[in-house]
Amino acid sequence: MTDPYEPQSHIVAPHPPLTDYYASEAERASFVRGIFDQTAPDYDRIEGLLALGTGGWYRRQALLRAGLVPGMDYLDLGVGTGILMRQAVRILGDASRATGVDPSPGMMALARSLPGGRLVEGCAERIPFADASFDFVAMGYVLRHIGDLSAAFRELNRVLRPGGRLCILEITRPEGRIVRGLLRTYIRGMVPALARLSGARRESARLWRYYWDTIDACAPPEQLVSSLGAAGFLSVRRHIDTRALSFLSEYQGRKPGASQNG
Questions:
Q1: Nearest C-alpha neighbor of 28 from the set 106, 125, 100, 115
Q2: How many Cβ atoms from other residues are within 10 Å of residue 90's Cβ?
Q3: CA Rg, the chain, in Å?
Q4: Which positions carry the signal peptide feature in this UniProt record (predicted)?
């Protein structure tokens, strides 16, 4: 039996194709871009319903734990509507040092309210910046939507300066059957129902069902840690904040070399 997390044609996907939503791996990128474009106007409101401890305070603390400090040049990959980047700007104290990249123009249109930061259309597998452009790279709950983890992790390493820091936030499928069942019911059932009651678009309810299905099928934490190490990152670890929910994962690492920011 083929392991869906092993390289096939040199591509390592975060999960097998979810054929309830797209027919093959080749169609993943267009599906993901399309559904996020269509649901962008509802996204922040429904994300607020989802919550799960991933609000502004948690995001800001995660960035601090991973080493973000004022004076760094910051890249937010999969910036979406700018939820994580807003917290980064609060730490940096200078929006001009923050850059967001996303493949969805619809989502980025809502992030343009961020004062001073750059927003650029692009994807994780081909980041549209030169080598060693940033001191800190972050991804907030987008890893499951990337088509090729190996390519994306190499790109993250490439655009970081020596000693640069990495922070990837993700929701990890709970190990316990009861907690997993409760989380599935909430994300796949209750959140779409609340979205419909709040007047959200039909595709917004579908997005959150898809959201759970990507969590359920995603590669396990040890696979992600190993893949980051294979891409050249050092001191890779999965951190779980005991004050938050145990299925909220923070993947931290750094690029080899000395950092100018400590």
A1: 125
A2: 13
A3: 17
A4: none
Within 13 Å and on the Cβ side, how many CA atoms surround 146? 31
Which pLDDT tens digit goes with each residue over 177-189?
Answer: 998 999 999 889 9
Which DSSP category does 188 fall into?
A: I
Q: Give the structural domain span for 65.
A: 25-174+219-254
- What is the SS3 assignment for 83? helix
Whether the CB-CB separation of 241 and 220 falls below 8 Å is answered with no
Flag whether pLDDT at 262 surpasses 60: no
pLDDT (tens digit, 9 = 90+) per residue, 88-131? 999 999 999 999 999 999 999 888 777 778 999 999 999 999 99
Tokens representing 87 are: 């917290």
Q: What is the model's pLDDT at position 52?
A: 61
Of all helices (H) and strands (E), which one includes residue 163?
strand 160-171
Domain annotation covers residue 129: yes
Q: Are 246 and 202 in contact (CB under 8 A)?
A: no
- What order of strands is seen across the sheet that includes strand 160-171? 118-121, 98-102, 74-77, 134-140, 160-171, 248-254, 234-239
The tokens describing 22, both together, are: 């797209």
Number of domains in the chain: 1
169 inside domain:
yes
> Is residue 115 included in any domain, yes or no?
yes
d(CA 71, CA 74): 9
* Domain assignment present for 8: no
Total-model pTM = 0.90
